[in-house]
Amino acid sequence: MRAAPQNMAMQRNLAIPVLAAVGNCRWITEAIRWVSSDAFNRPLDLIGLP
Predict the structure, then answer these.
(1) What is the spatial distance between Cα 2 and Cα 24, in angstroms, rounded to a whole number?
(2) Rg (Cα) of the chain, in Å, rounded?
(3) Following CA atoms 28, 15, 48, 20 in sequence, which dihedral angle do they give, to the nearest 10 degrees?
(4) Which of 3, 31, 32, 48 gets the highest tally of CB atoms within 10 A of its CB?
(5) How far apart are the first and last CA of the chain?
(6) H or E segment at 11?
């Protein structure tokens, strides 16, 4: 049950290219703030789910 740090790192490493591919923000920190302002809906919007 010590896989939590690896899982969080995997999610971070997946999120950074997705945010960069969307291209609506100049900086990764801007993109993270944009997603976190509506944390339940924006990640689904990024991957195209309703």
Answers:
(1) 35
(2) 12
(3) 40
(4) 31
(5) 33
(6) helix 4-22
